[in-house]
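Good morning N.,

You mentioned wanting to compare the apo and holo forms, so I went ahead and generated the holo version with CDM. This is what I fed in:
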Amino acid sequence: MSVTVRVPAKVNVQLAVGPARPDGFHDLANVFLAVGLYDEVTAAPADELRVTCAGPDAAQVPLDRTNLAARAALALAERHGRPADVHLHIAKDIPVAGGMAGGSADAAGALLACDALWGTGASRAELLDICAELGSDVPFSLVGGAALGTGRGERLQELAVGGDFHWVFAVADGGLSTPAVYREFDRLTPDAPAPEASPALLEALRTGDAAALAATLSNDLQAAALSLFPALADTLKAGTEAGALAALVSGSGPTTAFLVKDADAAERVAAALRASGTCRTARPATSPAPGAGVL
Ligand SMILES: C[C@](O)(CO)[C@H](O)COP(=O)(O)OP(=O)(O)OC[C@H]1O[C@@H](n2ccc(N)nc2=O)[C@H](O)[C@@H]1O
Ligand SMILES: Nc1ncnc2c1ncn2[C@@H]1O[C@H](COP(=O)(O)OP(=O)(O)OP(=O)(O)O)[C@@H](O)[C@H]1O
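and this is what came out, ligand included:
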């Protein structure tokens, strides 16, 4: 018997970042939107904890206990006083170290898959609690849809979305370390104001208005990501020239996100980005996508 869970990637349509806190994290107003690029995590009984991974970026994924999926299984097992005797297989389609919460998706997926496999019966509140311990983005990977994350991004308020949005994601050659991008933000922004969600952006999500969303997208980490990975400016320019409504760095990058009018525009912009030579590949996807779910 095995259990497979599908989990979406995310893009941050607003990422407002405050000053560094005493614990090293930053307070955020983080508007998450789940997008239809997915990892699948399968949990099956095994003699001991084992992780395998397949997919184009699999070589960059650690298979030891530092893997976020393994950490999720260990955290659930420990709380319930049982061994983490499970084989976790990750079918990886979300870019690694790309700012799309791929590791977080695998953590949320492993948690849900182990809960079902082991019959743990953890409540939603307990699962969300474990998610928050594992990482700031992990609760959103479980919930999906759209949500405003406050605190370090782990305290979620679900948001209504009035329609589908179409995107293209340009996958960069290489990754960026999330802590390094936050450190660069601190260096570039010595007097960051307290973060606040944009009412105009929340309204654009609520009405499903792509043009209004395009006018309100923002990412306070973008300048830091560009400072560490200057070639991203060429990718942003290529997508904009190809007709995207708006372009921004996804979270801590280096994946870049292009909001487009419809599915046809997504195919056109993706083709232009691939031909531009400014990214490794370009992937169309729609949002919102559902959160982690057993298949
Ligand atoms: C950039 C985003 O992806 C936007 O959603 C997230 O803020 C990052 O979330 P994540 O990868 O789950 O991050 P965590 O695993 O919780 O933290 C990794 C590191 O990122 C930095 N970090 C993360 C979240 C936050 N609110 N402030 C931070 O400064 C810290 O240096 C932390 O040590
Ligand atoms: N299951 C996992 N999948 C991918 N990377 C993992 C996983 N577990 C641990 N890692 C490590 O975490 C690092 C960041 O990977 P991840 O793909 O989660 O980055 P990210 O998408 O930029 O994260 P975020 O958007 O949440 O900041 C990788 O370089 C890898 O070493």
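Residues 102-118 form the longest helix (17 residues).

Happy to go through it together on a call whenever suits you.

Best,
F.
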